[in-house]
Design a protein that fits this description.
heterodimer; A: alpha+beta; six-stranded mixed barrel; 10 strands; elongated; B: alpha/beta; Rossmann fold; six-stranded mixed sheet; four-stranded antiparallel sheet
């Protein structure tokens, strides 16, 4: 019996009991559908997290005060130390490292901001003119903080769109208006474009002021909370960390890098941490879906075993008429493979539709990888072989005499 | 020339420590073109003998030569091949594939032998016409009467042009009127030169054969000729 005839006869056997065939395949449909939908949702989440981290700024390295692990094993909270100063940032900038394209010293605190009767508690960031280049900030209207604003300690402010709507209502251009930060009056000189609030705090809920004003006038401190660096390219990230790091060690007169009073976090560190988190999340989802696939496979085995018992006489007859053991095994294996691959294809279509609906509903990017499709077909075929083998072997091992006598 | 040669065949079943002798040193032969009936009450060992003749089982001792080939201790696959090429089975319960057309049923042994599809269909159509079912080739087995199903089974048994046709109580599930028709077909097949071995416990059916071998308690009790078999 050649292969195409085997397939044709398997289709006929499956057609004889359509309801049972459909129910047996349903387990695989649900299993494969769940795997495809959940994996693609996981990947979409991964993509979305990655996009928002990259939105923080290209090739970003952040230097924060405080060591990662102090000698006594006690670690200060993020940004609580006061070891970084504006001079540190200026030293890095004036060193003109080829690996570093921009240096942005920042002092961020939360403060009460009022405009007329409205007030809001928001994040105040003292910045220099390099901030927009490092953090991908663009202006919606007006201008950003200039070098002369910083040099002259001016009380000018650039608002994020969320602050604008909190203080002035939507659709209002507040440029030229006056606001008060910690009761000190500031003039609004511009509004930034919305970046969308995702992941690491809402970047739109921010007021930018000159860093010198922030230090001297508003908060009365002489340190800064972090220095953001833009590496010249993604290949220069490590070099940039080394250049800035060793310079700061020299400035702070620390010989052992282990006892540095600052730490560095690169965007790629954050990215790899985030993607390992979302990767685990995706694997977890896939694992749950795989269990339903396993249950579907056992369902197929169950149905095939029932089929073998029900067709005992037929198997005996086939063997009496000259079917070899291998022919019988092939026949039953092909039936279960058709069942699982058929279920796999239907499940795949269902999974794609499902993940499209869900990702549209919660506005995630819709991604379907070719790998997951290939995997779905491969896995469902594999399940057909795995769970079809035992029933097929059982059919082939039937003695033709016993099988013919079976009532 | 002997088509079937059985010499000193014994079959012993072991269940635990107890040996049950189903066949005890049986010897006989069947010539090409003969129509032989094997008769005996239930438990006489005739089913065991049929299984050995049909290459469904192998003897514990003794030799069985079918069409010049020794059917002794062969592998399962080799036995399957012998059943396919040399033996045409006709069963009491017909054993057609359920919900499958008569034509497909007759084709089945030929598909296992790897016969080309066009040739298979041509041969199956010829055989179905020969047993008088030319107008029912596309009927499925559940749309046929008992006699018609057995005729499909006979056509199927003939499809590989086997050395012997082995019929096990071929009329056991058929009304007596139709059973005569079936026996006529066997008689015609013999006239065309086919060798037929029929197992039965009914004397009225055994009368159609040329020679009757009586078997009892695993041994051949007696052999008797029926002259030229029952006339039409």
């Amino acid at each position: 019996m050649n292969f195409s005839e085997l397939i044709a006869s398997s289709f006929e056997a499956l057609k004889l009991n359509k309801v049972r065939t459909a129910l047996a395949g349903l387990g695989i449909v649900i299993g494969i559908g769940a795997v495809i939908a959940l994996v693609s949702l996981g990947q979409a989440t991964q993509q979305s997290v990655q996009n928002s981290i990259e939105g923080l700024g290209a090739n970003l390295i952040t230097i924060i005060p405080g060591s990662q692990a102090t000698a006594g094993g006690v670690q200060g909270g993020f940004g609580t130390s006061e070891t970084l100063t504006l001079d540190d940032a200026n030293a890095i900038a004036s060193a003109n490292f080829p690996s570093i394209s921009q240096v942005s010293p920042e002092l961020s605190r939360r403060a009460q901001v009022t405009a007329g009767k409205n007030n809001t508690n928001t994040s105040i960031i003292g910045v220099t003119p390099t901030y927009p280049a490092v953090h991908n900030v663009t202006m919606d209207s007006g201008t950003f903080i200039t070098a002369s604003d910083v040099a002259s300690n001016r009380e000018v402010a650039v608002l994020g769109p969320t602050v604008v709507s909190d203080l002035f209502g939507t659709g209002v251009d507040p440029t030229g208006q006056s606001i008060r930060i910690n009761k000190i009056p500031f003039t609004v000189i511009g509004v930034t474009v919305s970046k969308g609030g995702t992941g690491f705090g809402n970047q739109d809920d921010t007021v930018f002021i000159p860093i010198t004003t922030a230090q001297k006038t508003v908060f009365g401190v002489n340190y800064i909370s972090d220095i953001s660096l833009s590496a010249s390219s993604s290949n220069d990230m490590t070099q940039a960390e080394n250049d800035a790091g060793y310079l700061l060690l020299r400035l702070h007169k620390i010989s052992n890098p282990q006892s540095a009073d600052f730490s560095m976090v690169s965007q790629s560190d954050i990215l790899s941490t985030a993607s390992s988190v979302t990767g685990t999340f995706t694997a977890l989802l896939a694992g749950i879906a795989a269990i339903s696939l396993l249950v579907g496979g056992i369902g197929i085995m169950n149905i095939m075993l029932v089929t073998v018992i029900e067709r005992t006489r037929e198997i005996g007859l086939r063997k009496a008429l000259g079917a070899k053991d291998n022919t019988v095994i092939q026949q039953f294996l092909i039936e279960s493979i058709i069942l699982t691959i058929g279920g796999g294809v239907v499940g795949m279509i269902l999974g794609i539709i499902l993940s499209y609906i869900i990702s549209t509903a919660i506005s995630l990017p819709f991604t379907i990888s070719l790998t997951s499709i290939a995997l779905a077909i491969g896995v469902s075929g594999g399940i057909g072989i795995l769970f079809g083998w035992y029933p097929a072997k059982k059919a082939a091992d039937l003695s033709p005499i016993e099988a013919l006598r079976y009532e | 020339m002997d088509q079937i040669s059985v010499s000193n065949v014994s079959k012993i079943y072991k269940t635990g420590d107890v040996d049950t002798t189903a066949l005890d040193n049986v010897s006989f032969s069947v010539k090409k073109g003969e129509f032989v009936a094997i008769m005996g009450p239930s438990g006489s060992g005739k089913s065991t003998l049929m299984h050995i003749l049909g290459a469904l089982d192998t003897p514990t001792s003794g030799t069985y030569i079918l069409d010049g080939e020794q059917v002794g201790k062969l592998s399962k696959d080799k036995l399957a091949e012998i059943r396919n090429r040399k033996i045409g089975f006709v069963f009491q319960a017909f054993n057609l594939l359920p919900r499958t057309t008569a034509l497909k049923n007759v084709e089945l042994p030929m598909t296992y032998a790897g016969v080309d599809k066009d040739e298979r269909i041509k041969r199956a159509e010829e055989l179905l016409k020969e047993v008088g079912l030319g107008d029912r080739m596309d009927h499925t087995s559940n749309q046929l009467s008992g006699g018609q199903m057995q005729r499909v089974a006979i056509a199927r048994a003939l499809s590989m042009n086997p050395a012997i046709i082995l019929a096990d109580e071929p009329t056991g599930n058929i009304s007596s009127a139709q059973s005569d028709e079936i026996m006529h077909i066997f008689q015609n097949l013999q006239k065309q030169g086919h060798t037929i071995v029929m197992i039965t416990h009914e004397p009225s059916v055994a009368r159609w054969a040329e020679r009757v071998i009586h078997i009892k308690d695993g041994k051949i009790e007696k052999e008797e000729g029926n002259g030229k078999g029952r006339k039409k």
